[in-house]
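so i finally got all the pieces together for this one. its two components total, 229 residues if u count the protein bits. some of the lines might not be protein, just check the labels. i wanna see the whole assembly predicted at once instead of chain by chain like last time, that was a mess tbh
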Amino acid sequence: DAKTTQPNSMESNEEEPVHLPCNHSTISGTDYIHWYRQLPSQGPEYVIHGLTSNVNNRMASLAIAEDRKSSTLILHRATLRDAAVYYCILRVTNAGGTSYGKLTFGQGTILTVHP
Amino acid sequence: DTEVTQTPKHLVMGMTNKKSLKCEQHMGHRAMYWYKQKAKKPPELMFVYSYEKLSINESVPSRFSPECPNSSLLNLHLHALQPEDSALYLCASSHGRTGLTEAFFGQGTRLTVV
């Protein structure tokens, strides 16, 4: 399975932008990059996903490097509610193979937001 | 309705008990997942169902027995568990199994084995 590497923890101040990096140097051409977050005492929550182009939605933006070996989740204005563990996950698209259908979590980044 | 509902929220069971966890979704999703999460660790994938058929079993011990009786419902039957099986059990669903689709998670069942 292609792996992702994220910093263990990051800190931010409220109302400032946050850039959460993820390295995935063994990504294959058809793997989608997914981001989920898990707030304390809750199940994981989908944030955003993309393949090659940068993506925006109401929660965040996803910037994908041209070689796709890394990506960055951008929270434009952090709030206290954004304090969570953020997971970067590769999700395969091609049927067949041992990883098809899996959504495998790595260690994630613990984001702390200071008031 | 974008909810995945898990019941019960909390469960305490003895090592000789048999219990079941239930997960329900009404989004028309055909892929459903069970995860186990220990404190301060990421969720670990246990099982994946696709169109009500088991497609992935991550070498889970047989004391955990999944069942998908219909496209909306996923059960996890528990029997002869050990105290180390105490954890948060999460259910998720997605439209399909590919990278194109996002997954929706329930709030989990917190299981304590005594």
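Chain B has no helices and eleven strands.
The interface with chain A takes residues 4, 31, 33, 42-45, 48, 50, 55-56, 90, 92, 94, 97-100, 102-108 of chain B (CB under 8 Å).
anyway lmk what u think
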